[in-house]
Amino acid sequence: MTLPSTLPNDVPATTVLKVKGASHSRTSFLLHLRPKYYPSLSIYCRATWLLGFFSVFFFVLESITGLILMVYYVPTPGEAYSSIGRLITEIPFGWLIRDLHRLGGEAMIVVVTLHLLRVYIAGAYQQQRRMTWVTGIGLWLLTLALAFSGYLLPWDQLAYWAVTIGTSIADTIPFIGQTLTTILRGGSSFGAEGLLRFYLLHIIALPTIFLLLLAIHYYRVIRLHGISFVQGPGSDDRTSCDAKNLERQTFFPQIPLAELFLSLVCLIFLTVVATWFYNAPLQHHADPLHTPGQTKAPWFFLWLQGALKLGDSFVIGICLPLTGLLLFTLFPYFPSNTAKQFNPFYRKIIFVICSMTLIGLTVLGLPRFGVTLNPAAVILLSFMPEESTSRFHAIGFDNLPQGIYSTNQSYAELPSQLQTLLNDFSVALRELPDTAIDGNIQGILMIEDWQADLKRITLRIHRQAGPNLNTPTSLEKQLYLHRKQPRISPTETSSHER
Hints:
Oligomer: single chain
Pfam families: Cytochrom_B_C, Cytochrome_B
CATH superfamily of the largest domain: Cytochrome Bc1 Complex, Chain C
Largest sheet: 5 strands, antiparallel
GO biological process, one term: respiratory electron transport chain
Number of strands: 9
CATH class of the largest domain: Mainly Alpha
Low-confidence stretches: 1-31, 230-245, 486-498
Domain Cytochrome b/b6 N-terminal region profile: 19-230
Organism: Desulfopila aestuarii DSM 18488
Number of helices: 17
InterPro entries: Cyt_b/b6_C, Cyt_b/b6_C_sf, Cyt_b/b6_N, Cytb/b6-like_sf, Di-haem_cyt_TM
């Protein structure tokens, strides 16, 4: 009699099947990577929402696109940025490969996180699934580590300072903090050694550990205990089924064809998004001597940046997250009241509290919270962001005629989009606190034909001398716009007062 290779819940994994007089152990991993039969319930979308499949899909996508990027990437401070620039401007479809790699990495973080939360909410971490839960936590951490290590590789301004500030948290650890930070950066600050270390972590060390953990995780799910079936609201999450009566599905050809179809649909969807709706950022070349006005962590670590605004970096940034992670990892091993520990109501209460806390900290981590900037500088940054494209790029090269324009005048002959920008600039200046005092603030826009097919755009806020100001002051910001707008942001000069 042949039984399904993947059995749910607590069916012993060492069951020996008699086939033609020979004994074959069901625990063979190398010879039986995929079972011959699956319980039909396990392949339904609602069983796991396919989150495990898509987690592996995105890892494979990242591996393939990453191997292509490695052909053109040069891991040195002098060549890293320019090699990315050549990839996205000179190599056919190089920009698409890079966008897919960045988009896939961010999607992988979301999917792996949702997969982990589904397992938690379903209570699928009990008994022999406890070690599977621990390996799942490890895979989630490695996903974040892969994203963080890859964040530095373009060697642009935003990534350089985000990773610099992120690694500085380790410096707060007593006794070993400074040594650990030096090991991560390859010195007191990021340079050639630090970039190479992050590159090797990203392409060798972390993927190797990820594959090992994934093999253990997959083996336990597919060979030892199967998935956790949730039959409906109020039911016991640890549902057991009689293996003999379990409806089953053969692996070939239905399941491979379904997985291939899902992979193609997902790849087409990602390609459409990367082509028309998504652009992997590449900002200014990293400058260790200039800190951007609004440095921020990657979106998946904004919660940590928000938490650091509340107190001591060591306590808030290291102790509390590590304590929470340890409790979350060892939750199935707690010798507490089993009914309370595994009760869906208690799990959902904990989930809601943790989710609201992380959302609040993420919002607090945004640059506009907890940072006091010159109001005039904030206006200039809103029209000419340091690390993203501006409204001038949306207007376009041909709709920016050369000239000097003031917010105190109207220009009927200007293109409508440029006239709208000037009006918005004028409205923003009238809302400045200084305007209410003496009303002598003027906005100036200068557009110059700097070189062939290159314009220099200067946005200036000028305050004349008055009752509350002895000498005039000026704050300005510049950017250069090429006729053929590249997919990377143009070079901008930093704001300065004079």
